[in-house]
Amino acid sequence: MKGYNFGYLDEQTKRMIRRAILKAVAIPGHQIPFGSREMPLPYGWGTGGIQVTASVLGPDDTLKVIDQGADDTTNAVSIRRFFARTAGVRTTTHTEEASVIQTRHRIPERKLREDQILVYQVPQPEPLSRLEPSRAETKRLHALADYGLMQVKLYEDIARLGQVSISYDYPVMVNGRYLMSPSPIPAFDNPKMHGMPALQLFGAGREKRIYAIPPYTDVRSLDFDDHPFRATRAPHACGLCGATDSYLDEVVTDDRGGRLFVCSDTDYCASRRDTAQVAAQ
Amino acid sequence: MAYVAVKGGERAIDNAHAWMAEERRGDPSAPELGLDQIAGQLGRAVDRAMAEGSLYDRELAALAIKQAQGDLIEAAFLLRAYRTTLPRFGHAEPVDTARMQLRRRVSAIFKDLPGGQVLGPTYDYTHRLLDFSLAADNTPQPAAQAEAADERVPRASDILGHEALIEGDGPTGEEPGDLTREPLAFPAGRDLRLQALARGDEGFLLALGYSTQRGWGGTHPFVGEIRMGEVVVEMVPPELGFAIDIGDITVTECQMVNQFRGSKTVPPQFTRGYGLAFGHAERKAMGMALVDRAMRAEEFGEEATAPAQRVEFVLSHCDNIEATGFVEHLKLPHYVDFQSELEAVRRMRAAVAVEPVAEAAE
After folding, report:
1. Using 50, 70 and 90 to split pLDDT, how confident is the model at B195?
2. What is the ipTM of this complex?
3. Active site residue A269
4. B157 shares its domain with B38
């Protein structure tokens, strides 16, 4: 785009962000403060993810952007267009074709590879924020690996409700050291983070933090021996492709209780239907 | 099948933007607003957009206000997003507000003082009656003119400072932090606090300042002085080694004089709260000065319990660009998370139906 650098950010800023990313990769799950810039999209709409993507993107990359698992949600369209316009990179909706995938709230169903980078948009990087609002204090708790607050929260849930009430943004321990917010992905996606071959980068623009999970890192959802973590999904098959292993969106079809359950990952669903069609022919 | 994709898509976005552009223009038979009209006749709006947008440029601010249909937070956001793409050459010398070309200068603590009281262009003593004559074309009577005072006009804090009755400016010389480059960390020094307040939301600072007056962290303030006018911005280019004038900006400065403090080693003296904002922005400068002083509670050994005294609380929430983004992001789709909540509630309700909660807790 005329008047702007490749990928919008100037090279100095990209260098600063890449330094933060390198630190983040070196200390898995640890939040690295960075000089987040104002972006031409509002805070809370993916500015952290966009800055990370802009810093790792090269002209040969192929970018996929999803929101709620789908390529055609308005904000995903907006961010994909932003990079098509400012970086001129190839974009795709196919998970296997993408070298960089920016996501909000989902991890693709298809297994990611070593040559791919998954960039998460993070609204609130501090996993303890709802239990301790002061960042000066949570910083201390992380330094001491003092995660009793969260353990007590999970215990109280089980005592009161019989189960943990957190259904998304379910906290994980990374590499056995740092408690980390996986961003507001459904707890269903948490196990995909463990030992993932792809590099996972997390950008929180408004809160000015970057963190990372290097490939093949140990990522455990917080739980108790007698109450192990369980990944749950709606107990249905996808109404379009019939998948029973994917995360489902619930679509309200009428005002008389009619529901349709469909894959939230639109690329996964479409490719399954394509394969089925080819097989039928 | 009744599956209707609720997901937006490119065409919807394009159409929405086209509709918005049409709405912004309004009735095409009415003349279009020019930037000179906005800059010239909506000056206070321009001032606010510049202050919260952290960019001093009246023309760009006028453009931002036009583009945002007069939504000043949106206008400030447009300026910020533009500002962040500009190269940074360095930092200016501290502006000397004693050398300000004054348009207004009032003190509430001295009846008269060197430089005098200058009321200047103010709404302070207008009666708030709608002036229906403004609805039609209106050319005001020319205002009376006087020679501008050319000499340096000492600030009220300088006057009190002669007797050491008020705390000094503190040490200078150290390069101040820059919160647009480095993320804010706590505890935050006063340089960074003042930076954050200077670009902070006027309404937020007004409300917090007001809360201190009502007992939530009282600081017993007096307006030592408010002054508004033009100051020279100077910079020392490394290749020259001396300061050069790079332009004039309009600023409003507020010096609050607050309750005195003393200890066994320091004799009692008044303390200060400081406010400075781009343009003519007294409400903002005063709110800022009240909150600045309130946040110094710890420094003076006061108990810091009220919201305005809690540095992390104030600084983390005073930026309206951050606030509006995060509040408004709730409009974005959240159906994946909501779905997981739905499933969790259904699961828990099913568990309760099988066995009462009291037993599950055993």
Report:
1. very high
2. 0.87
3. yes
4. no
